[in-house]
Design goal:
Layout (H helix, E strand, L loop, with lengths): L4 H11 L3 H10 L4 H19 L6 E8 L5 E9 L2 H4 L2 H17 L11 H17 L4 H19 L5 E2 L2 E5 H12 L4 E9 L6
Length: 200
């Protein structure tokens, strides 16, 4: 099948990939649009994985105040160059992350940050609940681990489903941005404020 300029243009608009990459993807998938998108995604995610070790010392500080001024988020999102930091895609990512944090109120950045005592407390609660419901002892541990995974998805930012697209996690969102922008991107830190928080 002949790969036309219009096909390349359409794929480029849909994925943000370069012209040559789009042509190669279409050629490898015999002109099938969906297969070409999947090809570019796999290639981009593989490339993104290689970039994650690189130094990210540029970036932006994003401030978001939710309408009504009762919730606000301040975060630092880093990349490798000021060129990428000034792009609309990077600024949109920073805004989307701040919006998500305002909505989802994560307690921790990653599961590695969750204190051991918190994990053990949750384990004990889930174990007691499972036994109280009469679950057999030999499956209680599996139930506890499953509930613990859900706990991580609720309280750890990188594992939360993205508020605008619940099919992807925040980690997926950042990885896709790395693939698209061609630089390592790191959410360095964030803080969320809510009126009256901690007073009760």
């Amino acid at each position: 099948m002949e790969i036309t300029a219009a096909m390349v243009k359409e794929l480029r608009q849909a994925t943000g990939a370069g012209v040559l990459d789009c042509r190669k993807a279409l050629e490898s998938s015999a002109g099938d649009f969906e297969s070409a998108v999947a090809y570019l995604r796999e290639k981009g995610l593989a490339a993104a994985a290689k970039r994650t070790g690189r130094q990210a010392s540029d970036g932006v500080v994003e401030a978001y105040v939710h309408p009504g001024s009762r919730v606000a988020v301040l975060l630092e999102l880093n990349c490798e160059t000021d060129f990428v930091a000034r792009t609309d895609d990077f600024k949109t990512l920073a805004h989307d992350l701040a919006l998500h944090i305002a909505f989802a109120a994560p307690h921790y950045h990653t599961r590695e940050e969750v204190p051991t005592e918190v994990i053990e407390r949750e384990r004990a609660i889930y174990r007691a609940q499972a036994l109280e419901k009469g679950k057999p002892e030999h499956i209680v541990d599996r139930i506890v681990e499953g509930r613990l995974e859900k706990f991580y998805q609720q309280v750890c930012l990188m594992e939360q489903p993205f508020v605008k697209d619940e099919d992807k996690t925040i980690q997926d969102l950042i990885t896709e941005a790395i693939a698209k922008l061609g630089e390592n991107i790191v959410l360095r830190r964030f803080v969320r404020y809510e009126v009256g928080e901690g007073l009760e």
